[in-house]
Design a protein that fits this description.
The protein is an alpha/beta fold. The chain has one domain: Purple Acid Phosphatase, chain A, domain 2 (4-Layer Sandwich), CATH 3.60.21. Helices cover 21% and strands 27% of the residues. It has 5 helices and 15 strands. The strands form 4 sheets. A 6-stranded mixed sheet has the order 7-8-11-12-14-13, with no helix packed on it. Strands 6-3-2-1-15 form a 5-stranded mixed sheet, with helices on one face. Helix 3 runs parallel beside helix 5. The protein is globular and about 45 Å long. The N and C termini lie close together (6 Å). The model has no long low-confidence stretch (mean pLDDT 95). The structure holds fe (ii) ion (FE2). The site of fe (ii) ion has 7 residues, from loops.
Amino acid sequence: MKILVVSDWIDQLIYSEKMKYRMKDIDIVISCGDLSFQYLDFIMSELNKPLYYVVGNHVSRRSFKKNEFGDLVSDFPKCFKNLHLKHYKEDGKLMAGFEGCVWYNGGPFQYRQWKVYFYLLKMIPRLLFNKIIYGRYLDIFVAHSPPYKVGDREDPCHTGLKAFNWFIKVFKPKVFLHGHVHLYNRNVEKVIRYYETDVINCSGFYTLEIE
Ligand SMILES: [Fe+2]
């Protein structure tokens, strides 16, 4: 399965009339956040492939609302599939995700470190189900923030989420896709091996193939 991952900024190689020819062998599109739904809509309509996403910490006020528990939830069009704390199986690949980043100024989709552990614990029943039925917990984990000290930065906004380190060690996804930390240089290494997982910075765009 070939995946196009986009994140953080509009890349002119993607926002182009030639993109559908360059990316014609793509099977699914994933957004790691901080992108408008207009941009995602462009990609989806050009490629006509399923699009999964998590939101980042930069979300327009019109793109989220409060649910009955007072939590913020993204309000993107329903044609995009929100991976936040959800599980999907696409072309045999097991996918899940977590939105936002670490709390730094009280803006939307910012989470205290301890609270991320709390939310990820809720995913355990389905992960165990995957292990029993499919022989593995997860193939693809999609986040906006990187794990702590694995491709993150030291400033308060770009510090990684510690719960992700625990999650990767225990549930061993094949790949952990994230954005948030901007890497503008196309030649810089974007993949960090962490235990049994490739942690990939997908800021701008990144393509990968999963067997
Ligand atoms: Fe971000």
